[in-house]
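ugh ok so i messed up the first submission bc i forgot one of the chains. this is the corrected input, ALL of the components this time, i swear. 454 residues overall. if the numbers dont match what u have on ur side tell me asap before i send this to the collaborators (the ones from the other lab, u know who)
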Amino acid sequence: MQLRTMKAAALGLALATLTLSAQAHRGWLLPSNSMVEAKEAWVTLDGAISEGLFEFHHVPLRLDGLTITDPDGVTTQATGAVLGKYRSTIDVRLPKDGTYRLAIVNNNVFGSYKLDGETRRFRGVEGSPGAQVPAGATDVETSTTHARLETFVSANSTSEGALKPSGVGLELVPVTNPTDLRAGEPIRFKFQLDGKPLANFPFSMVPGGVKYRGTLGELRFTTDAKGEASFTVPSANMYWLSAKYPFEAGKGRPEPGARRYSYAATLEVLPQ
Amino acid sequence: MNMSKTLSLTLQNSLRNSLILTLPLASSWAMAADLSVKFDLPQLNVAEYHKPYVAIWIERADQSVASNLAVLYDVKKKDNAGEKWVKDLRTWWRKAGREATLPIDGVSGATRAAGSHTLNFNAARNGLDKLPAGEYKLVVEAAREAGGRELVKVPFNWAGKGKLAANAAGKEELGAVSLQIQ
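and heres the new structure output, hopefully the right one now
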């Protein structure tokens, strides 16, 4: 009994890292600004997992795995994140002019196995203690969700170096710079899965402020036959863009061997 | 069982002795009003859809609750887990839910899928016969997990008796809402 409680606690900690799409609560990043115009440019990033969009009321999003891709396309690990009760926060220095990508990429594993005659279920980030199968386990079944959670920030000017896709997983490939979005102006985004364009692919954008507005105001868009979407957003706000593949995937545990993908990004749309 | 036998015997006796005793009862029954509420839960094109929690009540002109009619939530969840999300019906929670103990007999019910639904509240349930004549509003609140929250208010003038019909509509989480008193 005690061992199982400890295991549950470990799972709970793993869950606090990154769990998208399986439940109504979602993980998100929130930058203090998407375009910083200053000689010494910094941005503060918050990360949390919550039911209400951009509300801090559930658990923090761990930022240990946060990577920064600079305008030259060089990727480094972020350091100095502070883990709070409802959110994590990190200050990021932006030494070069141009667009940066701030991203957390994880493989979340769901699984079950048999050990000592009992069926045990587990769920956690690939490679973490919560996602490991003990020696001697039989009938191991796992399924994976490849998850990418990111946002973009520019210092003094926009650039394209950080916007090249990795070719792995579900990705947004911006044609319009994601830190240069304006209400009412056309936005062009492409979607790819493992490097291949996704045609007729739906994605959503939810504006912040749901708590005060009441209605969700979710906008739903679809890519064309070439995997590109061109659309406008009616009002200025911080938006949470989300997509998943397969897009009709049900909730709950995926089938054994199934591979799911999720993508989420926080994008700032300013008034014209 | 014995009680009802005695009661019916007593009634039979009164019938034999005096018809006048039963007449006022019959006429007050005819005056009591039945209320029916029809509401639309729109089919939404969203990334994640959950059936909304819905609360229905009658409010007075000062927005206090005159009659609590229905609160639809996940009544069947283990350990009353569904109650945790009833707070998302923020207005209902503030006006009536916070003080109440769930499930409320005759008021709590299961969530409904997208589509048109009609709920009927007979005279004993709707409490209209206790309300003084005046301006009231039927309020329907819908809150959806990973979704939004919307209130629709249907004003009506209650004369203490009689028939009436009124309607209003929401924009996103609720469609048309109509009430009928007969």
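quick check: The mean pLDDT of chain A is 89. that seems consistent at least. The two ends of chain A are 60 Å apart (CA to CA).
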